[in-house]
Amino acid sequence: MAKVFISDLVLRDGHQSLIATRMRTEHMLPICSKLDDIGFWSLEAWGGATFDACVRFLKEDPWERLTQLRRALPNTPIQMLLRGQNLLGYRHYADDVVRAFVHKAADNGVDVFRVFDAMNDLRNMRVSIEAVLKAGKHAQGAISYTTSPVHDIPHFVELAQGFAELGCQTIAIKDMAGLLTPARAGELVSAIRAATGLPVHCHSHATSGLASMVHLKAVEAGAGIIDTCISAFSEGASHPTTESMVAALAGTEWDTGIHLGQLEEIAAYFREVRKLYWQYESSFTGVDPRVLISQVPGGMISNLSNQLKEQGSLDRMDEVLAEIPRVRADLGYPPLVTPTSQIVGSQAVLNVLSGGRYKTISNEVKLYLQGRYGKAPGTINPEVRTLAIGESTVITCRPADMIPDEMDKLRSEIEGVSQSEEDVLTYAMFPDLGRTFLQERNADTLSPELLLPVSAKNAGGESTRFAADEFRVTLHGETYHIRLTGTGRGSQSERPYYVSVDGVSEEVFVEALNEIEISGDSGSGKPRTAGKPAAGSRPRPTHSGHVTTAMPGNIVDVLVATGQRVLAGDPVLVIEAMKMENEIQASISGTIINLFVTKGDAVTPDQALLEIQPE
Fold first, then answer.
1. What is the distance between the alpha carbons of residues 536 and 545, in angstroms, rounded to a whole number?
2. Which neighbouring-strand residues pair with 582?
3. 532 falls in which pLDDT band (50, 70, 90)?
4. Which helix (H) or strand (E) element contains residue 425?
5. pLDDT digits over 140-150, tens only?
6. How many helices (H) and strands (E) does the chain have?
7. SS3 for 595?
């Protein structure tokens, strides 16, 4: 009997696709023994955006999550998603960092490494695949499936043959946006099986409504493993339902041997867990055939929805979805998978929100157009390239060949803060964010984002009570920057709050004397954005010399000083928005007379960030 195996994605891609990767480890561990009893081929539980979310939002050590899951799942292989030379970050790393990361991931519990590259450039996957095989683990080469004038069956078969030559034990078809059709799936699986003889693992998001049919046709064509997700976190931008696919294959030659009764107990548990994360629910949870045009992958559409919502621009989603394929064509049709999905998606948002196409170009787009992410599958729009990088040289070698070894430098930079090689690798993935995380962990002040109580949700599914969580306070002529980092247990009227005052962690005890419910914004009928920092001492822009940002973000670098002369178009600030870095340029030529921001500040479009006195 040609049994088909199941990999379940509830611990990674399921919640990444539907609740912006916010599930906490504490809500995973209680059900692990039940998951471990099922007999899954693997449980995807690490990699992708989970590492970023743990450090950025949940304030969990991602390495500790992995070791805890490894102990809780002794009988089931743990699978991770690895971005080749990008690992889990958004840039290429030196080969010694790649080898060190794979080694530590294997040591801490990863058994199956699904390795992909956003450009389908085999050069960017070779070192990580070699490292996985050296660690004695399972290397799965992943084809980032997409459609375009340059992506056809021979193109993907050639890539699969390359994986086989590198020593991969299985080939995954990674249909991250739900673009694969049933007929195409059967043709592609048959072609890969014939060319390589390797087992094929099918992964398809349900966004377009085709994924269950894709799985069935892939199985009929010889796919031996399929990705599904427990029903509580399945369908929509996520994946076909585990219970449904098990039932569909039951009694056939591809029977999975999994019992539906066991799965229902797990689904019931996760249905209750999902309720706790209602504030992160994507507005795009159903079938959305627009993905067949926009090609936005499941994991990204949830984050894109949240990012637009935070900027008060969710009503412009259709414009962004229409702009994404245009940006993708300009960039030579890269597959839309992290980090290129983020690069293309963020640039599309900038094109829509900043008042003109390519009026603002992210640093990542500039690096992409220089060849720093690998070879583009198609032809790049020369006008866009010139606009972004001018006459800069475009590299043609493997990008990582230009990166010297980094581990010793990273160890030196984080010395005194890191306590292990894993800490150094956390810092390597996200230097500023990682350093802050490790410092807060060492000071025992880590505190995750607040989960709003279900009772705060109104009939429309939105919270009706909001307050700033970052602000400036001026007292007796002294100004303090205060950020709420967490809250402790207490009574309804008395509880401790953990705050950062000018970067120093403090604990304050607050006794509430009254409570005011805020349901809207000055009669607009629309709820205000939670956690959006007040403008503080920054003036609102009133003239052309006031430099602003097109979207909310954090200042990651200040490139100028007061008294410095600049020309219109010169970079003056670097802002991180939607995990991408964007240069803010001087609006006019003149002299910097006021700087209203410093590195690390959160900023919004209605604030002047600096002031230029015109010539």
1. 20
2. 362, 575
3. very low
4. helix 421-429
5. 999 999 999 99
6. 20, 20
7. strand
